[in-house]
Structure formats: C-alpha cells, structure tokens
Amino acid sequence: MRRKERIDRGIKVRTEGIYAISSMREILYLLGPRLLLIVGLILLPFILQLAPYWARVVNIMCVYALVALSFDFLANYVGLVCLGGGFFVGVGGYLSAIFNTYLGIPFYLSIPLATVFGAFLCTLLFLPCLPLRGVYFAIVTLMYPLLLTRIIEAFDILGGTNGISGVDSFPNQYVEHYAIIVVLLLVLFGLRRFVNQDIGLVLRGVKDNDQSVRASGINVTHMKALAVFISAGIGCFGGAYLVHLYMWAGISLFALDFSIIPIAAVVIGGGGTLVGAVVGTFILVPLSEALRNLGTFRIVIYCVALTAFIVLKSEGIMVYLQRKYHQFERWVKV
Amino acid sequence: MLEATELMVFYENMLALNNVSIKCDDGQIIGIFGSNSAGKSTLMYVLSGIILDIQRKEVMRGGERISVFGRIALDGQEITKFKPHLRAKAGIILCPERRRIFPESSVLENLKIGAYLSSKKDAKQNLEYVFHLFPRLTDCIKRQGGFLSGGEQQMLAIGRALMARPKVLLLDEPLLGLSPAYQKLVVDGVREIRDAKGISIIVTEQYARPVIPIIDYGYILENGSNMLAGSREELMDNPDVKSAYFGV
After folding, report:
1. Other CB atoms within 10 Å distance of the CB of residue B92
2. CB of A179 within 8 A of CB of A240?
3. Residue A264, exposed/middle/buried by CB under 10 A (0-12, 13-18, 19+)?
4. Which residue in A40, A79, B25, B136 could disulfide with A207, CB within 3.0 to 4.6 Å?
5. Contacts of B112 (CB under 8 A, 6+ apart)
6. Chain A residues with CB inside 8 Å of B10's CB?
7. Residue A159 has pLDDT above 80, yes or no
8. Which chain B positions have a beta carbon within 8 Å of A276's beta carbon?
9. How does pLDDT run across A276-294, given as a tens digit for each residue?
10. Which residues of chain A lie closer than 8 angstroms to B59, CB-CB?
C-alpha cells in the first residue's frame, strides 16, 4: 500500500523565520514570486508600447483587479459576499467627475477625494444592510447599482443618460499607466499585511463566528462597516480612475460587469489568497478582450471556460501554485 | 455483521487511525472508548463513509489530502468503496457527533427527513416507535429542532437515525453535554433499541462509565491505535482502563 505524501520544502521551512535567511537562494525563494509580479506589472506598459490597444486593456484590467481585490477581501476575510462592485465603481466615478468638472478640482486631487468620500458614502448607504448575511447581503448590494442608475435616469440628474463629459484626462500615458499599477500593487500588498494584523484577525473572526466576536466585547457592526469602508475605497478609486481614463462618467459605470467579472476572477484565482484575485483578472479580462471579435459568442466560450474551471479545478490557480511552490510530493509506503 | 479490518486514515501526514480492526456481530452493542484525538470520530466517519465526502471536499478546496486504507464489509459484502448514501441504503446509519439535527425543521420534519429511504408504512411504524422510545419528543413535535434542549436534540438525532431502518447504528458521542439524568434516558433508549429491534449499535464515548453496562464488547482507542479490546467484564477489570475511562 502506498500513499502520496506532501511535505514542505526545506527551503520554505528555513525561510519562514526572517532570522534564518542565510543565502541568496533563500532570499530569492522569498522575493522571487513577489518580484515577478511587481516587475512584470511595472514593465508591462513598456512591453505593450508596440500594441497601444492592449496597453489600454492593461489599465482596465488593473481596475477590474482592484474591484476583485475588494470583493475577495470582503467575501473571504469578512464573510460579506458583496455584489456591489459596480456600485463602488459608479459612486467613485461620478464623485470624481463632479469634483473635476463642476468644482474644477484637478485630477490628482479629485481621485483621492472621490476615493475617500465615495468610500464614506458607500459605507453610509450599506450601513442598514450590514446585519444581513450571505445571500441576503449579496442581493441587497446587487440592488444598489441598479437603484442609482434608475435614479440618475429618472430624475435626469448628473447628466442623465448622457453622463458627465469633459472630465480631465491624464497629462501623459505614463501617469495614466502607473497611477493604477502602483495603486494596485500598494493595495495588494497592503491588504495582505492588513489581514494579518490584529484588526484583520478580528475581521476573520467575524466571518467564522460573529457571536464569539460579539462575546469578546467587540462591536461587529463597527468592524463590518470598517471593512466595507476599505473595500468601497478600493472600488471607488477604480471608478474615479476610470472616469479620468475615459474622460466621461456615465451610467455604464454601474454596469453589472464590475460586480460579476471580479467574482469570476476570484473563483479562478483562488478565493482568500488576494493575489489570486489579481491573477484571475489578468487571465479573464485579456481573454474576454481577445474574444471580442467573436461577438456575443464570446460569452458562450467564457461561460464554458469558467464552468470547466470551477468543476475541474475549484481550488483556484493561486492555491494550486502556492502548494506546488512550497511543497513537494512523493510516494511512501504505508 | 459489520467488520472493518486494518483501517488506516491519514489527514495529510498525520496518522489519525492506525491499523484499527473492529467487528460488530448482529445484535451486539459495541463500545469504543478513547480520549480526545483518539480517532473515534474518524472511525465513525470511515465506517459511515462520510470520510469520502470530506475527502472530496478537501480536494476541491485545495486543502488537506486524506488517505484511507483498509476494508469494510457488511454481512460479508465488501462496502469499502461505497459512497455514504449507498452505505445508508445498505443499512449503516450514522448519528453524528454534536447531533447535527436540522435546526430550522420541526421535530416531526426532522424525523420524516430521516425516513426518506423507507416506505410510507415503515415510516409510520418507525415514527410511532421513536415516540414510544422517547416520549419527551411527543411534547415538542411542532417545535423547531434548533430550539430544543441538548437532551431533546440528542433524542431527536437518535430518532432520526432510527427512521432510516438501520442494520448498524453508529452513535458518535451520544452523551456529549447531557446531564446524568438525560444520559440515563439515552443509554436506556439505546439498550431498548437493540433489545426490541435487534439492531447492532456502535457507540463511541470518552467517559466509559455510563455506557459500559450496556455494551457487549469494547475497544479502547489511543492515538489512533487499538490499544485494547475485550468484553465488558474484561474491560471493567483492567486497572488501566479503570483509571483512564471510569474515573476511579
């Protein structure tokens, strides 16, 4: 009788304690994957200078990655399955457009302002549904973007169906690229750090068993609101950036795409890994762009690929890769 | 007759069950005693096949790899590869640890869910039998399972398992968190099930004293291995068993 055994690689065990790192190889083992992502992302606009269309896809891809990160954080670390990605993007986008066109605030201030005020506004609007859990929270948050779209349409405010045009663009291509890439990297590594802080641990506790957290004398609603604030901030930044990229804010910012594609990305990348959300969008968004000339048929391919993925490799790419990177397998006799 | 031979279970690299063989003849009550982490629940999962389900879920989640070895036979028929629902059909019914009743269904509904596999007539008969066995349940027939007390929940869980017409009933820590009075009610119920229906019963427990009077044969598990086996008298006379599992 034999069974397959999984064992941590020696180098993983050695590098786990920061004081144990003693060779270049071990430093590389730790930094390698991180550097691959960081350097790869930073070099991407340079590589894609030959294909300007795809360079633009990178920007949009990063926006989706941000929204996916905010979804992954809320769903897998706080236990709130939030389908309101489109809501965050829309609120951030419209606020930035208002700040920029109506109040004349330059883009480098309007984006941060829209991020903070947008996050605040989203949290305030989500406050009544924070006690909800699971599918109820998901449904209510899905309603919000639809609701706001209809309000804008019906009252013909904020440009109505035409949207707000004449938003400032970025001064040059590099600012355009790196504004989003740098923020994406900061958010990714920041969130990874945040979820392992004390407060992140409390949030995970809220996910696992909110009664126990309550019994420890912690205000659960307060914690959830904080998590929504962070998550909404990330989404709002994405929206605010997008508005300046397109030089236009319209109701398409509330599109269902911003709620659904991030979820698919998180499923593909591996929920709860945070990096997985980014990797998932980097696969999904270019794929959907590449299939664009197939017309509506791309949805079919998209759906089949997604279903196959969920059925065959439901753990997600990052979970799989991390295991292969940190562990090896061998047959042992029982 | 349920016979499990050389069961081995690994949770990733941790050995949870090591070469455990147990045998349960028709109409016997078998006791399995062990402290926490002895492998009692794992043994129950293996016998009822739930381990196959856990295994699959872990694979899908990308979690631990669970390896199961050994053979299980029911009445001479090999059932090692049977999925949990087929084992239930074959007559092995698990009454899980911490009861796991359906909290939002009423007592009657819980029992009816248990009777899914049996015919209408059998279900009616069994229902009467369960209420005869645990008269307390008749008082709260319409109440939601989640609002019952621990003891009532345990009776309900055993009742639900009975509704499926088991040949072998697996009771995983049925006395968990019960007062001595309720423990007695449950233990008497277990004995009566065996006497009246001839159902073989495997009971796991940490504290052997309340259960020992009703068992025919017992096994002591320690760190996943079968340390000792013997009839009721043999176990009661063993000084090590006495100090570890009887508290004297």
Report:
1. 25
2. no
3. buried
4. A79
5. B123, B127, B163
6. 3
7. no
8. none
9. 999 999 998 888 888 888 8
10. 315
- Dist. CA A93–CA A118, nearest whole Å: 9
- Residue in the structure block whose two tokens are 């894609």: A48
Q: Does B119 touch chain A (CB under 8 A)?
A: no
Distance between CA atoms of B7 and B22, rounded to whole angstroms? 9
B8 shares contact with chain A (CB less than 8 Å) = yes
Number of helical H runs and strand E runs in chain A: 14, 4
Domain ranges for chain B: 2-246
Q: What is the DSSP letter of B7?
A: E
Is the minimum CB–CB distance between B76 and chain A shorter than 8 Å?
no
pLDDT on residue B245? 86
Decide if pLDDT at A165 tops 90: no
Note whether B13 contacts A314, CB cutoff 8 Å: no
Q: Identify the CATH homologous superfamily for domain B2-246.
A: P-loop containing nucleotide triphosphate hydrolases (3.40.50.300)
Yes or no, beta carbons of B61 and A320 under 8 Å apart = no
Percentage of chain A lying above the pLDDT 90 cut:
36
Percent of chain B with pLDDT over 70: 100
Q: Is A259 left (phi over 0), alpha (psi -120 to 50) or beta?
A: alpha
Q: Is A312 an interface residue toward B (CB < 8 Å)?
A: no
Inspect the interface and report whether the beta carbons of B69 and A1 lie closer than 8 Å: yes
| pLDDT beyond 90 at A19 | no
Q: Tell me what pLDDT residue A185 has.
A: 95
Give how far B89 is from chain A: nearest CA, Å. 27
What integer pLDDT is reported at residue B112 of this predicted model? 93
> Which residue of B7, B60, B64, B80 to mutate against A (max A Cβ within 10 Å)?
B60
Residue B16 with chain A: CB contacts under 8 Å: none
What per-residue string of b and e applies to B93-126 under the rule 16 or more CB within 10 Å gives b? Answer: bbbbbebebeeeebbeebbeebbeeeeeeebeeb
Token pair recorded at residue A204: 């995970």
pTM, to two decimals: 0.89
Q: Which two tokens stand for residue B127?
A: 């229902």
A163 in reach of chain B (CB within 8 A): no
Length of chain B: 248
Q: What is the mean pLDDT of chain A?
A: 88
Which chain B residues are closer than 8 Å to A316 by Cβ? 62
Length of chain A: 334
Tell me what pLDDT residue A173 has. 84
pLDDT, mean of residues B91-120: 93
Is residue A61 very low, low, confident or very high in pLDDT (cuts 50, 70, 90)? Answer: very high
